[in-house]
Design goal:
about 50% strand; 15 strands; about 130 residues; mainly beta
Length: about 130
């Protein structure tokens, strides 16, 4: 689409059959096909994308800009830009997001929490309240 930012490249892979116990920090993009027991966090320096595939399982917190989930996650998810939940996504934990795209079949056992708007949104909301 014309208005979308260019996605960062996926440079790292945790392959199916691999189990990592401990926290993972990544730059740019990460695809998880295996199992991670620990938190997954993108570095704050640049845009990030995290893909949790259908065969993947994550037990821990997830922090990234663009998060795509089609596997199992046990723990809170923080998508600072966009959270995409594919049909086989299973999340047990609270979900915080700026924008959410959820396909039929995806499930969340937890609270949905939209992240607050930017500072520019506040004057608009204030003016709308004054017009009422």
């Amino acid at each position: 689409m014309f208005g979308k930012k260019k996605q960062p490249p996926i440079k790292s892979l945790i392959a199916q059959g691999t189990r990592i116990e401990g926290n993972v920090v990544f730059h740019d993009g990460l695809r998880v096909d295996g199992d991670v027991v620990g938190d997954i966090r993108a570095s704050d320096e640049q845009p990030s994308i995290l893909v949790v595939s259908e065969s993947a399982s994550v037990t821990g917190q997830i922090h990234a800009d663009h998060v795509i989930i089609n596997g199992a996650v046990k723990g809170p998810v923080f998508a600072h830009d966009l959270l995409e939940l594919q049909p086989k996504a299973r999340i047990e934990g609270d979900v915080s997001y700026k924008a959410l795209e959820m396909h039929q079949g995806a499930t969340i056992s937890g609270q949905l929490k939209p992240m607050t708007g930017s500072v520019e949104d506040k004057p608009t909301l204030k003016l709308a309240a004054n017009n009422g």
